[in-house]
């Protein structure tokens, strides 16, 4: 366990890997969170945005809210999706920015990346790509992004300061961050922070 993180990071990453591999491979399985189109409808994603995407990108959605609640990215802008999963939000962003812009999804999970890349290929959009990487070490150049989005991911990251530092680095000065995530209003006891099952369940 690293001195500055409350949990065994390797064990946590293995658990996260295993959970989201299952979601990517069997999105209609039974999980402790909602997935897919039903979840997206419930969270208030407009139907026309979803109807324009391949079902494979929608089926394995596992976000916690509509990350575009504050608005869609501007035409021609550059977007990074941290923890992009099946690529649902990345593809919505890519459609919004158009071919003068670009959208990059970053995730650690190969099965999710595979699903996202297949969905991107099905849309035929040339300005969207998916990269394997950590939120804590984003594979994105300094100041590249006009907008960073992240949906349901930062709660899974043990070193949140590292992830936010990376997001800040990847954003251009004056760029924007739109995050949907789980927040707690009370301090989490140390014992709970050390329990990997509580991070992933
Ligand atoms: C709850 S899912 C959300 C996926 C996607 N944002 C969505 O809304 O459907 C969490 C995703 O974050 C990824 N993830 C977890 N920890 C990560 C990290 N440290 N760096 C990059 N991706 C991570 C997982 O592999 C998984 O795809």
Structural key phrases:
single chain, 201 residues, alpha/beta, Rossmann fold, 5-stranded parallel β-sheet, 9 helices, binds S-adenosylmethionine
Quick overview of this protein structure:
It contains nine helices and five strands.
How would you describe this protein?
The protein is α/β, with parallel strands linked by helices and 201 residues long. It has one domain (9-182): Rossmann fold. It is 39% helix and 16% strand. The chain is built from 9 helices and 5 strands; from the N terminus they run H-H-H-H-E-H-E-H-E-E-H-E-H-H. It has helices at residues 9-25, 36-42, 47-51, 55-59, 88-97, 110-123, 160-170, 190-193, 196-200, and strands at residues 78-82, 102-107, 128-132, 145-151, 171-180. A 5-stranded parallel β-sheet has the order 3-2-1-4-5. Helix 1 crosses helix 6. The relative contact order is 0.17. The model has no long low-confidence stretch (mean pLDDT 94). Bound molecules: S-adenosylmethionine. The site of S-adenosylmethionine has 23 residues, from helix 1 and helix 5.
